[in-house]
Amino acid sequence: MRRRQIPAATPVTYRPETTINDPTPLRTDLSPSALTRLRKRVIGMLPRRDSGVQGIQFDPADVAPPDRSFWRPAKRAAMDSPHLATFADLLRPPSGGSVRDGVIGDLAEYHELTQERVVDRCLRSEYESAQEWQAAADLDEFYNSIDSWTFNLLWYAYLQTAGFGYPETIVVANRLGEVPVDARMLDLGSGVGTTAQFFAAIGYEVTLADVSPVLLDFARWRLERRGVKATYLHLPADLPEGQYELVTALDVMAHVADTAETARQVHRALQPGGLFVANFDVRPKAPEHAWHLYEDDLPLRWAVERAGFVPVGLIDKILWVYQARPTTGFGWRVRTAVGWLRLASPPARAVRAARRACHRALRAVVLSVINRLGIVNSTG
Q1: What band does 153 get if pLDDT is binned at 50, 70 and 90?
Q2: Any bridge partners for residue 185, and if so which?
Q3: How, if at all, do strands 244-249 and 270-278 pair?
Q4: Does residue 366 contact residue 41 with C-beta atoms inside 8 Å?
Q5: Is the peptide bond before 213 cis (omega within 30 degrees of 0)?
Q6: DSSP code of 196?
Q7: Could you report the per-residue pLDDT of 284-317, keeping only the tens digit for each?
């Protein structure tokens, strides 16, 4: 069955994703530094899921360094961690060079493109993703054809090394600490393989699993040419039972159609007491990011907890750390009942809907005031 055709997207003025660190020049008659800080602080305090920002990327080589004063604590620790150098080195060319050289070189060689064309496709990758979504008949066809995500995800890894974006992989490694002996991890929704590549470098036996053969093939090519030993699973293959101490799903769960079944599979794949680290990048429905399938994270968190997970940490209000617990007995029934009250009951849903409406209204009012003060993008 074909899914309902999404109306063609109207022309959008795209700009870099600027949730906290905005490299776009500002035009104002007032003090540039003071007003820039005000604008960043206001946008940074508003929920990212309501920002709906998507479009043309930017090149860190062409903009000023990010302002560290607005970084969250775990991000600041990650950017000062030795893990950052490890992550950056994994992106460099096998023969040596810069992170930017490695990212562009990998994409140019794999796709047989010029470096200039690679940069252009990286900067326009989110726009190309919207076009691929429009052309796909259903979700499966979309994931089988997301060529643009090889450009988007690898470029985003480069952005993270430069301080733009949130360095989730390094944040998770810092949170976990010392690597257990013979530890095994599964990167669910492995994308271009940078997370699994990093965890292999710090001592884990790694498995990459993705529903997209396009991404999995590119990840395998990247890792094999660098001599990284890994196992690859093309989903929806069943995950092996009780194999892993750690499963990561970074920027993944919001793209999964059946989150309940996915959470059950992850719980089954983990050893007792194993950890599941995930975030829930939910966004308002819009053609330019239609592959974000959810507007609210409560149903996703409920699916995870109902599968047998208990939240044991929340990093920077972004990354949830869950521990696998038994799904039998009185304790399990109590946890499930409490989880339903917190995440799935009518009062919980009503409170969340009211908070989202208030945040959207606050954002509209504050940004309107800021724009009246002249704090606007110079690109219009």
Answers
A1: very high
A2: 206, 246
A3: parallel
A4: no
A5: no
A6: H
A7: 888 878 899 999 999 999 999 999 999 999 999 9
